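We were asked to recover a plausible sequence for a given structure. The inputs and outputs are reproduced exactly as logged, with field labels preserved.

PROBLEM: sequence recovery
POSITIONS: 81
GIVEN STRUCTURE:
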């Protein structure tokens, strides 16, 4: 029981440190297609889960700000795995 409490406390401290850094946890489910893309990107880039999610959001936002979101959506539709 003590080991379980210690692990929970360690996780709580980790989450608190992340919040202090200004990081926010986002969760969700991904399709098998998206999971394969994730695995390919992780293998090629060496990025962590957090880096992959952060960079994916930043790239999508950049496409939106540059008026290229429609082009990005079309590419995703045309290049399904």
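RECOVERED SEQUENCE:
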């Amino acid at each position: 029981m003590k080991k379980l409490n210690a692990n929970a406390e360690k996780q709580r401290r980790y989450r608190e440190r992340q919040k202090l850094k200004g990081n926010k946890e986002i969760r969700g489910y991904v399709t098998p297609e998206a999971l394969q893309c994730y695995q390919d990107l992780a293998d090629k880039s060496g990025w962590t889960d957090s880096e992959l999610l952060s960079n994916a959001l930043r790239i999508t936002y950049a496409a939106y700000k540059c008026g290229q979101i429609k082009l990005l959506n079309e590419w995703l539709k045309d290049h399904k795995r």
